[in-house]
Write a structure and sequence with these properties.
The complex is a heterodimer of chains A (114) and B (111).
Chain A: E1 5-7, E2 10-13, E3 19-24, E4 31-38, E5 42-50, E6 53-57, E7 64-68, E8 74-78, E9 87-97, E10 100-105, E11 109-113
Parallel strand pairs in A: 2-11
Antiparallel strand pairs in A: 1-3, 3-8, 4-5, 4-9, 5-6, 7-8, 9-10, 9-11
Chain B: E1 5-7, E2 10-14, E3 19-24, E4 31-37, E5 44-49, E6 55-58, E7 61-65, E8 71-76, E9 85-92, E10 99-101, E11 105-110
Parallel strand pairs in B: 2-11
Antiparallel strand pairs in B: 1-3, 3-8, 4-5, 4-9, 6-7, 7-8, 9-10, 9-11
The chains are: A mainly beta (114), B mainly beta (111).
């Protein structure tokens, strides 16, 4: 079974631009979560989508948004990029294994804002 | 305030030594997961524990879930340089449908 895939793996953008990141979950998983990881703040939860609906949301400004499509693929958008948005953005999909939810991460998208 | 407290945050030891990483909380979790992450990559799921007192072994790694399901530990025997990485614990509270993560333990094994 293929794992979680994220595209692109690396991205360089300029302040003020916007960016869209893509995530394809493990086949059969309906939940997709997004995280931001930086050396200073660690792993921070952005939001989770389940069956095309945002189910949970972290404490990030409205510049960060996402959506999920009917095939469970998800996109995350960051508008008006700031230098502080430079980070590793991780997508994770969740599914049930023997009655327990397990979450699997993709390789991440490294975003650098200059 | 971190819901899951990991300790130590940094650990650097010599190859062949044993070590234990702790993940503590005042909350009860229905399940707890451990991940290892290497630089520039996503965290890789190592194990999920769900039953209080449960012990799971993965080669030289032993994971334990506390009896009250509020804490967990990861013990590595005879550490090797390949064990180097960031270890993260993550727990799901009953009905929360969301994982909360510890801040991580950065482990370095020196040859």
């Amino acid at each position: 079974k293929a794992g979680v895939t994220q595209t692109p793996r690396y991205l360089i953008k300029t302040r003020g631009q916007q960016v869209t990141l893509s995530c394809s979950p493990i086949s059969g998983h309906r939940s997709v979560s997004w995280y931001q990881q930086t050396p200073g703040q660690g792993l921070q939860f952005l939001f989770e989508y389940f069956s095309e609906t945002q189910r949970n949301k972290g404490n990030f400004p409205g510049r960060f948004s996402g959506r999920q499509f009917s095939n469970s693929r998800s996109e995350m958008n960051v508008s008006t990029l700031e230098l502080g948005d430079s980070a590793l953005y991780l997508c994770a999909s969740r599914g049930t294994v023997a009655g327990t939810y397990e979450q699997y991460f993709g390789p991440g998208t490294r975003l650098t804002v200059t | 305030t971190q819901l899951l407290e990991q300790s130590p945050q940094f650990l650097s030891i010599q190859e062949g030594e044993n070590l234990t990483v702790y993940c503590n909380s005042s909350s009860v979790f229905s399940s707890l997961q451990w991940y290892r992450q290497e630089p520039g990559e996503g965290p890789v799921l190592l194990v999920t524990v769900v039953t209080g007192g449960e012990v799971k072994k993965l080669k030289r790694l032993t994971f334990q879930f506390g009896d009250a399901r509020k804490d967990s530990s990861l013990h590595i025997t005879a550490a090797q340089p390949g064990d180097t990485g960031l270890y993260l614990c993550a727990g799901e509270r009953q009905g929360a449908q969301k994982l909360v993560f510890g801040q991580g333990t950065r482990l370095t094994i020196n040859p």
